[in-house]
Design brief:
mainly beta, Immunoglobulin-like, 2 domains, 4-stranded antiparallel beta sheet, 0% helix, FN3_sf
C-alpha cells in the first residue's frame, strides 16, 4: 500500500508499506521495482488498463528483511508508476527462492500539495550477524558463511583468530568488502575461536561476533579428516 505521498523539500515522494509474508523459510531481503508507465494530463482520469510503459527502464532497490517500507523519491508529477515488491529467502545451496511480486500503482496526478515530517534516515547498522554454516574447500581449509541484515550498501568484513587459538601462528587478520548481505570467510582452522567485525562502509557503527569452528568430523563433507 501507499501510506503517504506529497512534496518533500521540493521532491515528489511516496512511502510504500507491505506486510511480511508468512513462510517457514528465513527471509533475506525484499526487492522493490518501479517503472514510469504513462504521463497523464492534469485532468485525465486513471485509465482502465493504465500500465503502458513509457520506457523499458525498470529501477529496483534491495530492502533488508527487517523493514517493510520503502520511500520513493523524485517522482514526476501527473504520472503513473507501476510498483512491485518481492520477498527473497536466504540463499543456501545453488538456488534462492523468491515470492510472487505484489503490485500497486501510484498516480501522482492525484497528489495534493502537502508537506510531511518524514523520518530521517539512520546510519546503516549491521544487525543479526551470525554464522549460517561451515564448508570444507580442501583438506586443510574451512569456510564459514556469515549472514547479516542491513540497508543496501557496501560492507567491510574483518576476521581473525582469537588470541586463545594456539593452533594459529601470528594471529593474522583478514578483510574483504562486499555489497551482499553475506560473505564466506576462509583460512579457518578446526576447533578454533574467531572474531568477526562487519560494518557498512558509510557507517561508523560495526557489529562484532565471536564463534568457534567445529571439529573436522562435525563438518558434513566427502573429504577425509
Amino acid at each position: 500500500t501507499v501510506s503517504r505521498q506529497g512534496w518533500v523539500d521540493g521532491r515528489l515522494t511516496a512511502e510504500l508499506h507491505w506486510e511480511r509474508p508468512i513462510s517457514d523459510l528465513p527471509l533475506h531481503h525484499y526487492k522493490v521495482f518501479w517503472s514510469h508507465c504513462v504521463r497523464l494530463d492534469q485532468q485525465e482520469n486513471l485509465p482502465s488498463n493504465p500500465c503502458k510503459p513509457k520506457s523499458v527502464i525498470v529501477k529496483h532497490k534491495t530492502v533488508t528483511y527487517k523493514n517493510t517500507h520503502f520511500i520513493l523519491r523524485d517522482l514526476e508529477p501527473f504520472s503513473l508508476y507501476f510498483i512491485q515488491v518481492q520477498a527473497v529467502t536466504i540463499p543456501f545451496g545453488p538456488k534462492k527462492l523468491s515470492s510472487e511480486k505484489a503490485a500497486v500503482f501510484i498516480d501522482t496526478n492525484r497528489l495534493k500539495n502537502a508537506t510531511y515530517n518524514w523520518r530521517t534516515q539512520p546510519q546503516n547498522v549491521v544487525k543479526d550477524l551470525r554464522v549460517l554454516g561451515f564448508h570444507r574447500t580442501t583438506l586443510d581449509d574451512l569456510e564459514a558463511r556469515l549472514v547479516w541484515s542491513a540497508s543496501p550498501g557496501r560492507f567491510q568484513v574483518r576476521w581473525a583468530p582469537h588470541p586463545s587459538c594456539s593452533s594459529v601462528k601470528n594471529n593474522p587478520t583478514y578483510q574483504a568488502t562486499t555489497k551482499a548481505f553475506q560473505y564466506n570467510i576462509d583460512h579457518l582452522v578446526f576447533n578454533c575461536k574467531y572474531q568477526v567485525i562487519v560494518n557498512a562502509i558509510s557507517s561508523s557503527k560495526s557489529s562484532r561476533f565471536t564463534f568457534t569452528t567445529p571439529l573436522c568430523p562435525q563438518v558434513n563433507s566427502k573429504l577425509p579428516c
